[in-house]
Write a structure and sequence with these properties.
By secondary structure, the chain is mainly alpha-helical. It has one domain. A two-stranded antiparallel sheet has the order 1-2. A hairpin with a 2-residue loop joins strand 1 and strand 2.
Length: 51
């Protein structure tokens, strides 16, 4: 998933995702210069946020 797709999925502004992905430990990986996230990794991260 791209940063835009993650922001839309989370219901957050794009600026929030870019500004907080490291602090919040959103499971992005660098692919070239782009950030990408696997949907399964994002689901696991969301599950951990609830606990």
């Amino acid at each position: 998933m791209s940063v835009c797709e993650v922001a839309e999925y989370l219901g957050k502004p794009l600026s929030w995702v870019y500004g907080n992905w490291r602090r919040e430990k959103i499971p992005f990986r660098k692919v070239g210069q782009a950030l990408r996230c696997r949907p399964t990794d994002l689901e696991e991260w969301l599950d951990q946020q609830i606990k």
